[in-house]
Specification:
single chain, mainly alpha, two-stranded antiparallel ribbon
Length: about 260
């Protein structure tokens, strides 16, 4: 089936592919809780709204089918790259929850994550839900939509950029996400390590004391108390990172589109 038989210009097809890739990889919309029909309808609506503002980099009317397929794959990669940046923040939140859960004794407490349909730790799911609520509170989805509209100015459909220039920045951004995960879990880890140290000393002073049996209820209770006390700090850290996502997305687009 050719583009002419669909009565759609190739530029619109390329625009739709990029929009669908962004919607399919953006946090909240990419999860299993978002029906596929909703994502498909949202992608089509956004493509129709953005297409009048799109100025194709080259004329695609006489382009071959093979070349259009290659351009379509490139558009999908650009969309997935934009969504990947947002997913990094959720991965950082889950990483912090995994570290906390392992240290407090919840290593075997796994539940199914509705976002990825995979089993993750209980604290990781809790951190992921908090990150999702913060993402919606700061209108993070609007940030991605604005970056999507901006991407068509930097890289119009049919224009090939230089993705290799953005690789060092993406690597640095990924490393920052691991640092963020440690920042979210560091205070609780310090307190739990001090708790283990004190219990170790008490077990040496009082041999009759079963420190191993006391460790789990004490660590779990202290962890939940600290999670409640740190809620404002966690939300502020996530809010700051989500607010800066727009800047990171524009940086990546400028690096990819830099000639």
């Amino acid at each position: 089936m050719s583009f002419e038989s669909l009565h759609l210009p190739p530029e619109f097809i390329l625009c739709l592919l990029r929009v669908a890739a962004v919607v399919g990889s953006t946090p909240v919309f990419s999860g299993a809780q978002a029906p596929k029909r909703i994502r498909a309808g949202l992608s089509l609506i956004l493509a129709v709204l953005l297409f009048p503002q799109v100025q194709p980099g080259i004329s695609l009317a006489e382009a071959s089918t093979v070349y259009l397929v290659l351009l379509g794959g490139y558009e999908i990669l650009i969309g997935l790259l934009l969504g990947f940046v947002g997913q990094l923040l959720f991965v950082a939140a889950q990483f912090g929850g995994t570290v906390i859960g392992y240290q407090m004794g919840f290593a075997a407490a796994n539940i199914v994550d509705p976002q990825s349909n995979q089993q993750i730790q209980l604290l990781s799911q809790f951190q992921s839900v908090v990150a999702m609520l913060v993402f919606l509170a700061v209108d993070g989805h609007h940030i991605f939509f604005r970056a999507l509209a901006r991407s068509f100015d930097v890289l119009p459909p049919g224009t090939l950029g230089h993705a290799e220039q953005a690789v060092p920045f993406i690597i640095d951004l990924t490393s920052r996400m691991f640092v963020l995960g440690l920042q979210l879990s560091a205070p609780i880890l310090v307190v739990l390590l001090l708790s283990d140290f004190i219990l170790g000393i008490m077990s040496r002073v009082f041999p009759q004391l079963n420190a191993f049996m006391l460790k789990f209820p004490i660590n779990i209770g202290m962890s939940f108390i600290l999670i409640g006390l740190m809620a404002e700090l966690v939300v502020s850290l996530l809010q700051e990172e989500f607010t800066g996502v727009g800047r990171d997305l524009l940086t990546i687009l400028s690096l990819v589109g830099d000639k």
